[in-house]
Design brief:
Blueprint: H1 15-28, H2 40-47, H3 51-64, E1 67-69, E2 75-77, H4 82-106, H5 108-124, H6 128-145, H7 149-172, H8 177-195, H9 199-212, H10 219-228
Antiparallel strand pairs: 1-2
Helix pairs in contact: 1-3, 2-3, 4-6, 4-7, 4-8, 4-9, 5-6, 5-8, 6-7, 8-9
Length: 230
């Protein structure tokens, strides 16, 4: 039975949550590559835990969309296929467009200052991982500023896959000037519309920004796309 003793020591995260966070980071950083299997004994040994929290962590990551289970209960990291990319784009357009519209009305000076600082840091990011985290945080700030719980809840279900894809895209081009400039300039256009409290322009800028990233698909997805069109 669960320990309900109020005097029991509290921790910020359960063991399963800690394993979940570490496996998620390993997936996003490419340590566990696309399509690779995640055997529970291997994960348990890697993080020096029993298999029970590993299983719980993997189930949580399945809910986030980062892994899948086959009929035998074996887990595998998803592959960033064109289908995954297009589904992600569709979800983001459907959610972030309206969120930007709402944020332009409700955000205020505090949001504007936070986004401006975020964009400044993007321009100075030293690693692809830092740039990825800043990029995701930029969009999450806008979604949260919309103050719509349903939009936020739906967006959070796609957050991990978004971060996985974005990290792969930035890692693929090794922090080249073009994608960094694209991200910063595109974010500035969206920021400008939000600061101006222009909901129509904010929504248009958000949608255009999301669609503009098609030119920076991760290499694996680009290859699959080109082969499919032959």
């Amino acid at each position: 039975m669960p320990n309900a003793d109020p005097a029991a020591p509290l921790t910020r995260l359960s063991l399963a949550e800690q394993v979940r966070d570490r496996v998620r980071e390993a997936i996003i950083c490419g340590e566990f590559s696309e399509g690779s299997t995640l055997p529970e004994p291997v994960i348990a040994t890697r993080y020096r835990v029993s298999r029970a929290p590993v299983r719980e962590a993997l189930i949580a990551l399945e809910r986030e969309g980062l892994i899948t289970f086959n009929d035998r209960g074996r887990s595998r990291v998803i592959e960033l296929t064109p289908r995954v990319f297009e589904e992600l784009v569709a979800v983001r357009v459907a959610l972030e467009g309206p969120a930007a519209r709402l944020a332009a009305v409700a955000g205020g000076s505090k949001l504007a200052a936070a986004l401006e600082e975020n964009v400044r840091q993007q321009g100075e990011a030293a690693t692809y991982r830092e740039l990825t985290q800043l990029d995701v945080a930029f969009h999450e700030s806008i979604v949260r500023a919309a103050k719509n719980d349903r939009i936020l809840a739906a967006w959070l279900t796609a957050r991990s896959v978004f971060e996985f894809w974005l990290a792969a895209a930035f890692r693929d081009v090794e922090l080249a000037i073009a994608p960094r400039t694209l991200a910063v300039n595109s974010h500035r256009r969206l920021l400008k519309a939000i600061v101006a409290s222009d909901p129509d322009q904010a929504e248009k800028a958000a949608v255009a920004h999301i669609n503009r990233w098609r030119s920076y698909l991760p290499s694996a997805a680009r290859t699959t796309t080109s082969e499919a069109t032959k």
